[in-house]
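Homework help board

Subject: predicted structure for assignment chain

Our instructor gave us this sequence and asked us to write out the predicted structure in token form, then describe one feature. I got the tokens but I'm not sure how to describe them. Can anyone check?
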Amino acid sequence: MQIKLLGRMEDGSIDGQAYQGSPVPGMPLEEFAALAASIVVIVPHRPTEGVSASISMNVGLWALWGINYGIIEDQFAGEIAAVRGNIVKGFLQVCAQKPNVKYLVMIDNDQIVDALHPIQLALWDLPVVSGVVCSPSEHGILKACFTMNDETTGKARFPTVMYTQRLPARGLREVNSCGAGLLCVRKEVFEKIVASGEIPFYIPEESRKECWDAGVMKIGEDIAFCRQAKAQGFPLHVDFAVRAIHMKLSAFFWPQELIDQNMDARDFKVDARDYAHE
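My token output:
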């Protein structure tokens, strides 16, 4: 896979219209433009899902502001660790070509985000900063996709609406781990992980082998990356003001009008023209 970037034209315009004024109150246009040009936004997606309308609508603004933007197709059909690792490789190649590029912001395709979220995360100029993304837990309870050590036992926990309940509307907090769905990472984090001989986001082999017995992957690519970053001395943070809407659930079912009440299952045949996964 190769990262193909879309960005502002050399004269600072898109379709011949120059952008005027900074979108961030109090930030000079020159400072905003420099920060925007230092960001690469990558949206990994599966071909069966596409990219959310929210993200698609933001593309024009990102290009107008000078943010580098690209889409990566998940050709491994769910092996997101491989996809994210390849994104990092492509990002570092972009950094070698563009010395001003400093931040990689990954935004999953199934989210509603504000166009300024990449700017807000990069403004902290910290090694790893995540936004707040929510998902259902294993027990159906809504959780935020980051962990903090609780004060009683010191165990890393995901905050849920059942127990933690309230989140601050803004501010920064160091965390134990964070998800990769809305994540800003400075390039030196990746450089140091690669220099150590590891592949960013690679799930350890022992965790993969445990699936044979457990039936689940106990750590995902995001937790694996968090461990890699912390092992190199980089702290992890969450910006509570950057909150995404996670469009996680979709309904797929065979059309009712194509259900044959009279067909014997033993007579069912698949069409030779149908999809083949190889």
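Reply (TA_rk): Your tokens look well-formed. For the description, you could write something like this. DSSP finds seven helices and 16 strands in the chain. That's the kind of observation they're looking for.
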